[in-house]
Amino acid sequence: MDLESRRDLQLLEALEQQSTITQRTLASRLGIALGLTNLYVKRLIRKGYVKCVTASPNRLVYSLTPKGLSRKARLTYEFMKYSLDFYRDARRHLRRSLADGVKRQKRVAIYGTGDAAELVFLLITDMGLELTAVFGPANNGQFLGFPVRAITEHETVSYDVVVVAVLERPGGAARLLRQSGVPRDKIVMLQPTRTPAAEPSSVAK
Reading across the β-sheet that carries 146-150, which strands appear in turn? Predict the structure, then answer.
């Protein structure tokens, strides 16, 4: 499932759950810019998936059309299939990547706090490895009982590898880790990266 389809599904779900939701709230929920959210919503309206009416001068009410409900059902099915395939492949790749160096890579950190990070947490536990830290772009609450640290704090934590556990733009996340001083040989991607055959696929380049 591509990024555009995932955005469509997220927006359709949000608009169905809360018909009077503001675009600012939508942008915050999806983690994208307000202007981009406006473009996505307009596209859904233009394609006939969503109907929008003005309830008051500063209040819009959204509703999914029959075409929109059909689109949401189809995207939900596609997302479920994509998720099952993704998690199966990611689990196989991570198990192989971490097992290759298990004797020297017992301390694992995670970058990310979403569904992918939960998968990594379960795999780490299953393999008997130690989760030493959870990182994000900034300090942001807790994840499964661990404080979420800013990635700039990585030097204050002991770890052998950091698993990039994000689904959207993982390459960008890996670059952020490198820019923050994380050694590239300690960065493990959730899925194999597109690299030449002579280079190891589990380590971010």
Answer: 142-143, 146-150, 130-136, 107-111, 161-164, 187-189
